[in-house]
Automatic annotation (TrEMBL):
It holds the Pfam family 2OG-FeII_Oxy. This is Oxoglutarate/iron-dependent dioxygenase. InterPro entries: DIOX_N, IPNS-like_FE2OG_OXY, Oxoglu/Fe-dep_dioxygenase_dom, Plant_2OG-oxidoreductases. Belongs to the iron/ascorbate-dependent oxidoreductase family. PANTHER family: OXOGLUTARATE/IRON-DEPENDENT DIOXYGENASE. The lineage of its organism: Eukaryota, Viridiplantae, Streptophyta, Embryophyta, Tracheophyta. GO terms for molecular function: dioxygenase activity; metal ion binding. It comes from the Eukaryota. Keywords: Dioxygenase, Iron, Metal-binding, Oxidoreductase. It comes from Arabidopsis thaliana x Arabidopsis arenosa. The keyword Protein transport does not apply. Residues 209-300 form the Fe2OG dioxygenase domain. Transmembrane segments: none annotated. The keyword 4Fe-4S does not apply.
Length: 300
């Protein structure tokens, strides 16, 4: 969820990485994608053996007998990591499989079909890349599709309403399900912070609150050590709920100066505390820089 006052962005349209890989026999990475500016030596391959990001059980979080202990775990996860994996969230696994399959089908559409959803001038929503502001800027090795889901009146008429069926209906339901999960988490975070739930919920109930969805696709790369799937960043929103389409260990978060790989659990969400919550509560909850992977972002 993006809280009230979320920033507006734009991005220059760039070629599709997926199509570039499909159409040409690429043996080396084009110069514009080579990221020598990123320190790739800081990934700690052994770190995840010693410790993994916290796991929060939604069922325990909502149970009267286990709530207090699980809220303590949630508090620790938010303060010390800014990330956690959420299990037993209540969304049916077969439905999530359907979402994942249809996301892959969308990215596999012919380019002529995907061009209908290309980013327009001075907009970031649509198919393309994020935050490209100049012609010589280094690019991520990825394609994305980003669009506003809620409120309905903020949907771009050429994007969500034009998505093919049943994909559009599937995303509509997915949006609703994840929003419900996010609201429960927000209420439990308020409990962890020992404040009234409505104080935290107000951030997300204002008329300017926005729920957005972002899907990232990372094509095969001949020199993966030379590229970045998504530039390191923190999320300038309230809460991010991530779902990974496959089991590739691509997500990394920065912990104590080291990039820590995340092992995704089956049917789990990965939840990130965004900048808005950090600022609102005077950095009680930390925000951790991270890179991303083949997944869907739900900015809920």
């Amino acid at each position: 969820m993006e809280a009230k006052g979320a920033a507006q962005w734009s991005s220059i349209l760039v070629p599709s990485v997926q199509e570039m890989v499909k159409e040409k026999t690429i043996t080396t990475v084009p110069p514009r994608y080579v990221r020598s500016d990123q320190d790739k030596t800081e990934v700690d391959d052994d770190f995840d053996v010693k410790i993994e990001i916290p796991i929060i059980d939604m069922k325990r979080l909502c149970s009267s007998t286990t709530m207090d202990s699980e809220v303590e775990k949630l508090d620790f996860a938010c303060k010390e990591w800014g990330f956690f994996q959420l299990v037993n969230h209540g969304i049916d696994s077969s439905f999530l499989d359907k979402v994942k399959s249809e996301i892959q089908d969308f990215f596999n559409l012919p380019m002529e079909e995907k061009k209908k959803f290309w980013q327009r001038p001075d907009e970031i929503e649509g198919f393309g890349q994020a935050f490209v502001v100049s012609g010589d800027q280094k690019l991520d090795w990825a394609d994305l599709f980003f669009h506003t889901v809620q409120p309905v009146e903020l949907r771009k008429p050429h994007l969500f309403p034009k998505l093919p069926l049943p994909f559009r209906d599937t995303l509509e339901m997915y949006s609703s399900e994840v929003q419900s999960v996010a609201k429960i988490l927000i209420a439990k975070m308020a409990r962890a912070l020992e404040i009234k739930p409505e104080e935290l919920e107000k951030l997300f109930d204002d008329v300017d609150s926005v729920q957005s969805m972002r899907m990232n696709y990372y094509p095969p790369c001949p020199q993966p050590d030379q590229v970045i799937g998504l530039t390191p960043h923190s999320d300038s929103v309230g809460l991010t709920v991530l779902m990974q389409v496959n089991d590739v260990e691509g997500l990394q978060i920065k912990k104590d100066g080291k990039w820590v790989p995340v092992k995704p659990l089956p049917n789990a969400f990965i939840v990130n505390i965004g900048d808005v919550l950090e600022v609102k509560f005077n950095q009680i909850h930390r925000v951790v820089d991270h890179c991303n992977f083949i997944m869907t972002f739900v900015w809920a």
